[in-house]
Structure formats: structure tokens, C-alpha cells
């Protein structure tokens, strides 16, 4: 189970923010809690082969956030989970957190774009090689997906390399 997202260990000490990213503010943690579906991501070994990926955020007793990531590995026919913890990296009104899935090692969780109703988010790591588009629904609208893809491109994410877990952009892609 701990193998899932184990590569975040490599990001130890990587709690910065890319220069092209301004984490969202104001940010309300209570509104962000709950389940999110991964809509698109850049490829990394710790998620390779996974589909139906979700992240569930809930409060911890120590004031931090419990992070439970889950995905289905089709070729192995098994669900994988990783539990971590997150804390604000700066003030609690800014969507900049640090997350750990292994011991004292933390990685950046920068919310670069967020819908006012907290229905969709673009998250990047300490650099633009780590990026995720998340939504409350596993099937957001094509317009929403396109807006988030465009925002990712505008901040420098290689959107050609995004792996789409949702087919939300199928109607907008050229044949």
C-alpha cells in the first residue's frame, strides 16, 4: 500500500512554488475537504497505470489534513491506496500546502486555480513537472476541462503530456 505515491519521497524538501504560479487566495480549507476525482495528470511512476484515481481530504486531530489517495491498477486488478498528511505551508488563507506520504519528507501542493464553488482545481508541485486537474465530479464539462487545460498551459505545464482520466475533452480535440 505504501508503494503508491512513494515517489513523493524524492521530493523531500521540495516545498517551493513555481515562479509562474500564485497559489489561490482567499482559500477556505473547510470548502476544499471531501472527495476529488483526478481528471488529468502528468505521468509519474507512483501513479502509472492507475485509473479511477480519487483523493479524499479530511481533518486530522492535530489540525492538519488527512490525505487518502486511491486508484485502480487495471493490469494488476487491484486498488492501491496511500495515506498522507498535509499542513499549510504559509498562511491558512492561501492554497499552498505541504504534503507527506512518508515520514518527515514533504512536497509542495500549490493550488494554482480553483473554482469559486470549489468544484474544480489545478494543483502543481514545487515545479511544473507535477500537475493535476481535479474535480468533484468524475465527468466535468468539456468547457471546464478546456479552461483548466488552458490555465495549466499558461503557467507553463506541458499540457501535451497530460494523461486524461476523464474523456471531458474528447469533443474538443481534433480528429
From TrEMBL:
Subunit structure: Homodimer.
Role this protein plays: Involved in the storage or transport of lipids necessary for membrane maintenance under stressful conditions. Displays a binding preference for lysophospholipids.
Entry GO terms, CC: cell outer membrane
Lipocalin/cytosolic fatty-acid binding domain: residues covered: 28-165
InterPro entries noted in UniProt: Calycin, Lipocalin_ApoD, Lipocalin_bac, Lipocalin_Blc-like_dom, Lipocln_cytosolic_FA-bd_dom
Signal peptide annotation: none
Main location: membrane
Name of the molecule in the record: Outer membrane lipoprotein Blc
PANTHER family given in the database record: APOLIPOPROTEIN D
Protein family (similarity comment): Belongs to the calycin superfamily. Lipocalin family.
Keywords, comma-separated and alphabetical: Cell outer membrane, Lipid-binding, Lipoprotein, Membrane, Palmitate
GO molecular function: lipid binding
Residues with lipid group (S-diacylglycerol cysteine): 14
Subcellular location: Cell outer membrane
Lipid anchor positions (N-palmitoyl cysteine): 14
Biological source species: Alkalimonas amylolytica
Domain of life, source organism: Bacteria
Single GO BP term: response to stress
